[in-house]
Structure formats: C-alpha cells, structure tokens
Write a structure and sequence with these properties.
By secondary structure, the protein is mainly alpha-helical. The protein is built from 13 helices and 7 strands. 51% of the residues lie in helices and 7% in strands. Glycine (GLY) binds next to loops.
C-alpha cells in the first residue's frame, strides 16, 4: 500500500502536466483581436500613465531602443504633448485628461519670455491656446498675449517677416522657414484677445512676404528663404530638412497648406485661400503621393518607393483639409482627410498596445538629412491626428 501511494505521489504531477500541455495544444488560448477603437483607447491611457515631468516633455519614441526621447520646454515640440491631452479630453470627456493637460501646460509658462525662437506658437498656442478652448481662463489669455509680445521682437520691418532661426548666422543673414506660418495663429489670437492690432499686422506682413517668396511656380514651397536685413531682398532659397533645395519636403508642404488656411480664417484674404488650395492640389495630385494618403517624407527622394513615409505631414494636411472644406465645399478635401484618418486607424499605423509610451501613431519622420527621428512615433504626428479627429467629429 505504502509503495502504491509513493508511486502515485511521484507519477501524479507528471500526469497533470501532460494533460495540461495536451489541452494547451488542442485548444490554444485565443486573445480576442483588438479593434482599432480599443487600440486607440489603450494609446490614450498611455498618455495619462506617462509621469509628470516639468523638464521632460515626450517628443518621440525610439522603437529600436524602446526609449522615450524627452525634451525641455524650450524645445519647439514641448506644447504638443499638453495639446494632445487637451484634444483627448475634448474627444472623450474624461476629466483626468483635462487635469493632466492643465498640469503639463503650466510647465510651459516660462517660455513666454524666450525671445530666442520663432516657435512660440507651437509651444504656447498648442498648449495654452488649446486650453482656452476648454476653459475660459484669463490667465491663459494673458500668457498668450505676453508670448505674442516676445515673438513680435523677432519681426524685421525691412524684410516684413519674423526671423526663424538664430543658428547658421554666418551663412544665413535672416532665415525664414515655411514652418513659421504656423506661429501666426498665436499672433492673430493675441489681437483677438487684447484688441492690440500690432500682432495681427505683423502676422499679415509675414504671411504676405512668405506668399511672395516661398512658393514655386508649381505651388510647392521652398523650406528656407534667406533675406537681407537692410534692403529686404531675397539672398537665397535653400533647405534644411528636405532632400535638397529644389525638392518638396512633405511636412513643409503641410505647414504651408495649414498656415494659409488658418491665416484665411483670421483675414478673409482670398489670396491666402487660393495659395492653400493651390499648394494642396500640388500635394494631392503629386505622382508620388501614395494610394493610402500617407506621403513619403519628401516627394523628390530618389529612394522612392523605398523611402520612408511621414505620417505627421498627412495628419497636418488632413486637419487643414477639414478646415478648408468649411470655406470651399470641394469634396476632394473631405475625402482626403477621411482617407487619412481611416488609414491611420489601423494596426499598421497605431502603436502596439503593449508599448508603454505616450504616443499614438507610428511612421513619422522628423529630420531625414540629420538621420534623426526616422520612421518613428512623433508627438506632432499625434497632435494633428487628434485635431483632425476633433474637426471630423465637429463637421
Ligand atoms: N521645424 C518644424 C518641423 O520639423 O517641421
């Protein structure tokens, strides 16, 4: 009897293990496939989970290193993460996003005195500006006006533009980049809030100068135009982030389309609307545009079709298209924007649920010439995606 019990004690665990393995092979455990909507919810939760850090704003995510690239508030991208939280609050109504957005936004206030950059609009308007759409806060409005005052110090009357960068001073006397159109929203808003027309006038002058000098005959845009500060003449037309001086850098096209659509909102100047539409036609009709609506990072990269894409360019244009559709009911505008959102709401573009990083979309390209942030999740790709979702919802 004792021998029998000993035998059972020894053998039983093996029998149980064998049966367990058998049932495992016969009926593999199936996790239900996640829908794009539930994937998006997981990505939203990851924005909340990311710990508060007043000196480390999430900018991009290296898939290779599994590492979040964080930047201080002086970086041009700092406003996008708080902006994403404001957007998600508006999309979901979950107050946790609003509270977290307000906390991250407050870390940017000191930038209102930083006169060493033209990126004030990106930093302050994407954070405090989005906050004013959710809460009527006088404090935020004061910060917007103060920031506009600081940004205005970069305006040169002879050129009629705001100076973009301060680096490369030995070769670029006064560089203006197409991206700078995006900072005008802060100036237009500062006039609306304060009644002081100075900001509006500077924005209009900048938009007119850019309109005159940044666009080619085919309505694509140069990235950088360099001016003479004394007589305002154009000295050079070059690129910093595109393939070369004559190429059409996809995000640069996007900034132009969005910038002139937004400038039309504040001015009713038909020349701005026409430029936005003409540049959009160049972008949509380009033979190198992809069927799914996500462009290569530069329309003229000779590596096409092997070149990387830039999701951020697509989301900026999609968001602009919804606004443009409000001014001109060309069905192409809404069709493109809807297509981009549909493409991106898929496993190919949504970051996997198990990645614990505060980002939503893959496949943006930051600075190709510098081999920096290539084909990665980048915070501004998410920002304009969320803005486009909101605009689609509010159409
Ligand atoms: N300078 C802004 C951008 O990289 O698009």
């Amino acid at each position: 009897m004792i021998a029998k019990i000993k035998y059972l004690v020894f053998v039983l665990p093996f029998v149980v293990l064998f049966l367990a393995c058998k049932s495992e092979t016969k009926e593999p455990k199936e996790t239900p496939a996640m829908t794009a909507d539930s994937l998006l919810s997981v990505r939203f939760e990851n924005l909340l989970k990311h710990p508060l850090d007043s000196i480390g704003f999430p900018r991009s995510y290296s898939l290779a290193k599994a590492e979040v690239n964080k930047v201080p508030s002086r970086d041009w991208t700092s406003g996008f993460f708080p902006g994403n939280l404001w957007h998600v609050y508006q999309l979901t109504g979950n107050p946790d996003f609003k509270n977290r957005a307000a906390q991250w936004t407050s870390f940017i206030e000191k930038e209102k005195f930083n006169d060493g950059t033209h990126d004030m609009g990106f930093k302050v308007y994407c954070s405090f500006g989005q906050g004013t759409k959710v809460e009527q806060t006088e404090t935020y409005e004061k910060i917007i006006v103060e920031s506009a005052k600081t940004l205005s110090t970069r305006f040169n009357k002879n050129v009629g533009s705001l100076r973009s960068w301060d680096f490369n001073k030995d070769i670029w006397e006064f560089p203006v980049i197409i991206d700078n159109m995006m900072n005008l929203e802060l100036l237009f808003e500062a006039t609306r809030i304060s009644g002081d027309s100075t900001f509006h006038d500077i924005a209009v002058s900048h938009a007119n100068t850019t309109l005159k000098n940044h666009f080619r005959k085919n309505n694509s845009s140069y990235h950088v135009v360099v001016y003479d500060t004394i007589n305002g003449a154009v000295k050079d037309k070059v690129t910093h982030q595109g393939f070369d001086a004559s190429s059409a850098w996809a995000r640069g096209q996007a900034w132009g389309i969005y910038g002139y659509t937004m400038s039309y909102r504040y001015t009713n100047d038909i020349a701005y609307l026409n430029q936005a539409k003409a540049s959009l036609a160049f972008y949509l009709d380009h033979p190198n545009m992809r069927e799914d609506g996500i462009p290569f990072w530069d329309f003229n990269d000779p590596a096409i079709p092997m070149a990387v894409r830039d999701v951020s360019a697509a989301t900026i244009v999609a968001s602009a298209c919804y606004e443009l559709y409000g001014y001109d009911k060309n069905p192409e505008y809404k069709t493109y924007a809807d297509k981009v959102l549909k493409t991106l709401m898929s496993k190919k573009y949504l970051l996997e649920p198990e990645v614990e990083a505060p980002f939503i979309l893959k496949h943006s390209t930051g600075n190709w010439p510098k081999k920096d942030e290539i084909d990665e999740p980048i915070v501004y790709g998410d920002y304009y995606f969320l803005e486009a979702l909101l605009r689609q919802k509010n159409l």
